[in-house]
């Protein structure tokens, strides 16, 4: 934690210098504390009680914004969290760079902090005991959120500490929306999802505790060891972003232009993932992108669901190289640990038969014990289940040409 402590110490030293300078003259008035210009990165074990103390994500009750040193970003396909919108950004300490890699997550330097704020459109509800929120499907780009039309819920922070490991914590936004308070125990927020069509949908939004975060973010240690960022991979960030002020450019080249990226030469050959909502893209690519970002942090060879044998990584999904490879991503694969509470579901993926594919059933339920993912979702992502159902339905056709499983 020495580097992170040094960041904090440097800010304190600068402040002391200002105080001494003020005391050196004839003016006896007390020195006015000067707020740090950039974000302050804390070891998570020393996380302060208020989010504003990080000086990275801030609000005046009317607008929430990132510090100008925080680089906003988004993903081509994002994790679903009960229709919450998300504003993402990261801070890299001055003089440090991200190492470019197309394998796994970008290699951020020690002292990096990644911020993700969860928020909803405001809505008119029907139950005074529930927080009414609107149903949106796409997060706006930029570095600000208009609080006249949106409600902030939580901001999660993950920090790369001095020992090279990542640790995270969560802040829940106060009622006045001007700051957020440290919350390590988790929280349940009773909400009502309001959409343009259909009845209001009551649900419980779950702010995770530290243990819950580890289940997903310990992507290579069976859900019980070191945590890692999930989203900021080259294939997920190889897309344009509107930074405002007339600046709209590819996120990877933007990092390079900011001198924040080392080892990058060009986008030639760089991997990219499609936006799963883009109906103009092949259905197989859309399903692959969605399942990878929503499932693969557990369903990989080292994740929390590694024992299931069901691999849903970007590399595994759709593989038809061998029969074994096909089974790895669920085709005609019987589950190892599933009670089959819904009759008629026998295989994880049954080509041509979404109605008998356990993968789709578990995406399309909120029943405890059956719901997948097991954390982070209390509502059904109807648009995604429809798309995945269409994908399974056409798996018996070219170019997949997979046959239906035995009855």
Structural notes for this entry:
The chain has 407 residues and is an alpha+beta fold. The protein is 19% helix and 20% strand. It folds into 3 domains: 1-34, no CATH class; 42-273, no CATH class; 279-407, no CATH class. It has 8 helices and 16 strands. Strands 3-4-6-9-10-11 form a 6-stranded antiparallel β-sheet, with no helix packed on it. Strands 1-2-8 form a 3-stranded antiparallel β-sheet, with no helix packed on it. Strands 7-12-13 form a 3-stranded mixed β-sheet, with no helix packed on it. The longest helix is centred in the first third of the chain and has 22 residues, at 2-23. Mean pLDDT is 86; it is low at 1-27.
Let me know the largest β-sheet.
Answer: 6 strands, antiparallel
The total count of helices amounts to 8
The level of helicity is: 10-25%
Classify the beta-strand content into a percent band: 15-25%
Give the neighbour order of strands across the main sheet.
Answer: 3-4-6-9-10-11
Spell out the helices and strands N to C.
HEEEEEEEEEEEEEHHEEHEHHHH
Q: Based on Cα principal axes, name the global outline.
A: globular
Which helices and strands occur, and which strands form pairs?
Blueprint: H1 2-23, E1 57-59, E2 63-66, E3 71-73, E4 85-91, E5 98-99, E6 113-121, E7 131-134, E8 144-146, E9 150-160, E10 166-173, E11 180-182, E12 187-194, E13 201-207, H2 210-217, H3 234-237, E14 240-244, E15 247-250, H4 251-257, E16 261-262, H5 283-295, H6 323-328, H7 358-363, H8 382-393
Parallel strand pairs: 5-16, 7-12
Antiparallel strand pairs: 1-2, 2-8, 3-4, 4-6, 6-9, 9-10, 10-11, 12-13, 14-15
Helix pairs in contact: 5-8
């Amino acid at each position: 934690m020495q580097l992170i402590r040094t960041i904090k110490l440097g800010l304190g030293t600068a402040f002391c210098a200002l105080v001494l300078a003020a005391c050196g003259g004839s003016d006896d008035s007390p020195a006015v504390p000067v707020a740090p210009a950039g974000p302050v990165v804390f070891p998570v074990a020393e996380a302060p009680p208020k989010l504003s103390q990080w000086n990275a994500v801030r609000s005046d009750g009317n607008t929430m914004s990132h510090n100008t040193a925080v680089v906003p970003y988004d993903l081509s396909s994002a994790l679903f969290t009960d229709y919450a919108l998300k504003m993402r950004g990261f801070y890299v300490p001055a003089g440090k760079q991200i190492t470019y890699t197309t394998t796994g997550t970008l290699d951020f330097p020690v002292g990096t902090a990644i911020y993700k704020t969860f928020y909803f459109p405001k809505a008119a509800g029907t139950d005074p005991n529930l927080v009414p929120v609107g149903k949106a499907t796409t997060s706006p780009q930029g570095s600000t959120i208009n609080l006249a039309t949106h409600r902030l819920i939580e901001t999660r922070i993950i920090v790369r500490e001095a020992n090279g490991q990542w640790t995270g914590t969560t802040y829940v936004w106060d009622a006045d929306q001007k700051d957020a308070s440290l919350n390590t125990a988790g929280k349940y927020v009773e909400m009502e999802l309001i959409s343009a069509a259909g009845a209001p949908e009551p649900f419980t939004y779950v702010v995770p505790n530290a243990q819950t975060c580890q289940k997903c973010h310990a992507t290579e240690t069976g859900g019980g060891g070191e945590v890692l960022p999930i989203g900021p991979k080259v294939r997920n960030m190889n897309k344009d972003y509107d930074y405002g002020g007339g600046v709209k450019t590819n996120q990877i080249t933007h990092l390079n232009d900011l001198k924040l990226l080392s080892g990058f030469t060009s986008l030639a050959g760089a991997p990219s993932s499609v936006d799963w909502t883009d109906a103009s893209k092949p259905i197989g690519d859309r399903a692959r992108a969605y399942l990878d970002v929503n499932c693969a942090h557990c369903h990989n060879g080292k994740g929390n669901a590694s024992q299931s044998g069901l691999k849903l990584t970007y590399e595994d999904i759709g593989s038809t190289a061998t029969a074994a490879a096909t089974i790895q991503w669920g085709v005609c694969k019987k589950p190892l640990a599933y009670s089959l509470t819904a009759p008629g579901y026998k295989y994880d993926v049954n080509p041509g038969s979404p109605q008998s594919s356990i993968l789709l059933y578990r995406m399309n339920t909120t029943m405890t014990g059956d719901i997948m993912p097991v954390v982070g979702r209390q509502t059904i992502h109807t648009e995604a289940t429809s798309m995945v159902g269409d994908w399974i339905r056409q798996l018996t056709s070219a170019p997949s040409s997979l046959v239906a499983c035995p009855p």
